[in-house]
TrEMBL record:
Lineage, broadest ranks: Bacteria, Pseudomonadati, Bacteroidota, Sphingobacteriia, Sphingobacteriales
Organism domain of life: Bacteria
Stated name of the protein: YjbQ family protein
Family: Belongs to the UPF0047 family.
SUPFAM superfamilies: YjbQ-like
InterPro entries recorded: UPF0047_YjbQ-like, YjbQ-like_sf
Length: 140
């Protein structure tokens, strides 16, 4: 079994859901050496998250943003934590709902994503800044 790990910094993106599959694949060229294995992508932040979903129609990403903004509104007077503005606590809650990592099978040197699946960076802050990922791939 081989284990590979790389870290990358994603450029700052506006609030929303962004397909980052190609950036993840480019960051771990050793995928091609694995016939069968697992790839984990982990985000080192508490106000952004990762998920896997529709990679073709951008309206899906717009609907995700709309849904999460309705489900976790800004300026809720019950929030105690608002150190960095009205999007601060909602960003933490959204990140907790979606999670900090995704796990994808590796088959014949490629991520075994479905035809319409992509890895999303879910940016929950208005100005989240650069985001760091740790990508680990292992297998034979």
């Amino acid at each position: 079994m081989n284990i590979y790990q790389n870290s990358i910094a994603l450029r700052a993106r506006r609030r929303g859901f962004h397909v980052i599959t190609s950036e993840v694949i480019s960051a771990i060229p050793q995928l091609g050496q694995i016939t069968a294995g697992i790839c984990q992508v982990f985000i080192q932040h508490t106000s952004a998250s990762l998920c896997i979903n529709e990679n073709a129609d951008p309206t899906v990403r717009q609907d995700f943003e709309m849904y999460f903004n309705k489900a976790v509104p800004e300026n809720d007077p019950d929030y105690l934590h608002n150190d960095e503005g009205p999007d601060d606590m909602p960003a933490h809650l959204k990140a907790a709902m979606l999670g900090s990592s995704v796990t994808i099978p590796i088959r014949n040197g490629r991520l075994a994503l479905g035809t319409w699946q992509g890895i999303y960076l879910c940016e929950h802050r208005d100005h989240g800044g650069e985001r760091r990922l740790v990508i680990t791939a292992w297998g034979a």
